[in-house]
Amino acid sequence: MTTHPRSALSGIKVLDLSRVLAGPWCTQMLADLGADVVKVERPLAGDDTRQWGPPFLRDDDGEVTQQASYYTSCNRNKRSITIDMATPGGQQLIRRMAAEADVLVENFKVGGLRQYGLDYESLREINPRLVYCSVTGFGQTGPYAERAGYDLMVQAMSGLMSITGHADGEPGGGPLKVGVAVIDVLTGLYAANAVQAALHARNATGEGQHIDMALLDVAMAIQCNQASGYLASGKAPTRAGNQHPSLTPYQDFPSADGNVLLAIGNDGQFARFCSAVDHPEWSADERFATNRNRVANRQALLDLMTPVMKTRTTGEWVALFEDKAVPCGPINTLADAFEDPQVKARGLRIDLPRWGDAPAPDHVSSIPGVANPIRMSGTPVTYRNASPALGQHTDEVLLEMGFGAEEIARLKAEKIV
Question: Which residues are catalytic?
């Protein structure tokens, strides 16, 4: 496989033994940055998310296929090879791949790969330079280490759901999960950072290392200001809907035709807001002159603001504040967001071709997706191809490894690949 000559991770080989979201998000990030990522999938079944639908992709004739769009969200720029790692031949094949890899990413249960001789200690013996990243729900140590961990469970256990949603007693009150599997995604991002740091360290030491990533660790870490506030005060924060615990006004308001969001982060912005809505006396009021006082007198301020915010449409408010450096915006649907002129100008929707000829029955030549947000001037993110069909590159990868046509045929006949 050829990669973009100016890609940041060009020449780095990644063996991807992960599935679902956190691990694949990590390896997709590495692939976007130019690494050659080979994804190992189960024969016939593949990654679990290939079946996580609807929605499913449509083929070139507009017919619904058997591949869920979930899979395509986190597996672009990769090659797919099918290997049955439960067989001795499959284990030997993966060990041979690991011997030549720079990075291995896996998200099996703790100890799950040891029985196959594919754990870090075993593979380090054949490739001391290997950066081996394990992604689990609760990490390699601790009383929960052997538990399976899922994003929703970890959102609940970490306290994130206790600060997400409307307060008890309000309409729709109660704990809520975030609308996407945010812990999985952020664990993938942390893992990609860790992998690149380990590769940099390897340049100095010549040795790889084991990276232990846990969803629970990430969920605790990303609560940043809320967690720090609890540790400083001893008081656990509670749900406050779209309000900010340390800023006001920083929330949504009903407008004449829907809802509008204000994100006022300092006293200057508040003063400009007050002037624009013809209530300069609010910013002069001692109760509201500083953010600290506004938070202390939050309800009194909201009682004044809410009727005023209902007097104009969302679009009118956005237009009014646009040249006044007052952060204000609509609450879009995804459909609205993809039609937003800024989103279009930044090219955040991408349509990628399938990598060569996908095997039947998956005749999908182009797959839509969301662009990588990283913009680098010298070594830009590259988009080579959309997510692969199951096992699409099995022959290609085996040929690169030195297997001949007869050997590949034997591996297939023995159901190793």
Answer: 184
